[in-house]
Sequence to fold (453 residues):
Amino acid sequence: MNIEKTSKVLKYRWIVFTILALAYFFVYFHRVSTAVVASDIMSTFGVGAASIGLLGSAYFYAYTAMQLPSGILSDSWGVKKTAGVFTLLAAAGAILTGVATNFTMVLIGRIFIGVGVAMVYVPVMKVLSIWFKKNEFASMSGLLVSIGNAGALSAAGPLAIVATLLGDWQKVFFLLGVFSILLAVAIFMFVKDKPEDMDCPSIPEIEAHENGERYIPPKAAEKISMGAALKQTFGSGMKFWPISIWFFFMYGSLMVYQGLWGGPFFRDVLGWDKVTYAGVLSFVAIGMICGSPIAGYLSDKVLKSRKKVLLIGTAVYVILWGVLWLQAGNITSTMAYTIIHFLFGFFGGFCVVSYAQVKEWFPASIAGTAIGAYNIFPFLGGAILMTLTGKMMNVANGSIATVAQYKSVWLLMFGCMILSFLCLLVSKEMGVGKVIVAGEIADTYDVPPSSDQ
Fold:
């Protein structure tokens, strides 16, 4: 094997990852940016809270709807084209927001942003499955999620500060759009779908050489139709559905707390001001930044198991929900909640390992479709559980919710997480240590006969 080309692959993959990880940084940035400039939008265009709620949901539902298409396009178009084209769409949305003269333009811009950034995560995961070794996938996934959460934190204080310095919140979005165009150009110029595009050996070939084994190339490039890929993914039984249901409740419950009812609970029950509870809640993201890469490392290098790491993280997460439910209104210390939130994010961040567990059951040619299909469930969980708990927390105008109402929501989430844990127990994993021979990939992944056509 050409040592120079091998070295080129192992170095160049970091360029590919860095560019796409930067794009993912802005996925989280955009996700929370509406909350930061909500009051500015209301005063600029004379709209109320209902319009701000519509603006926030526009991103959320656009992002959810595009998860499956993002997987399909990553497999058919390729990573570079998918991420590049839709980063340009997100850039157009940001620029439209920056020059908007009415709320409708802002709403359309928000939808463009939601659709655009929705097409980043799955392509990056596809890149990780192609450019990195199997025992590096979970670690790199954890690093990616940490970068995303750093984007969320930077959209809080830093965004408000920059908007103040520029004297206009819309200028921030305009400049962000211009930067996104440059980022899209970088994607088109430097991102490669696979090492072979540079006339270099693939990662499986490099691994075989490092292990002193003879590399057996695939019999033929696997081309699986969209219908067959979807059928294979959704028809994979215990390999896909239990862990998908687990993710539905795991991430959905996190969004119920961090993204919806955590802040109002501290305001209504404990009487905290916005600055106080926003600072305390930020430790969920900080915990996730710390926990995600550690979970990946434990999965790849220490326990060498996806499922064991997920079970540990979920077990602690369930216990924390139990504490939140049983002690709601009794714990009043900001320090206590800071610790709880850090642990909440730290062990909640272990969920990133689940992508590796799902990905390993499917061939690389449909990895994007499989991950895109799987990624529907956390956001669907968030949408449904947030809607359900919203009905549970309904109060008359001018009234505040009682501690009993919040405890009923926390109890529901606690029960959902117990069910989630049981689903995880019966899920199947392939195992980090198992070696897949390239020429036998169809047999290993239960690919139907039609996949060879």
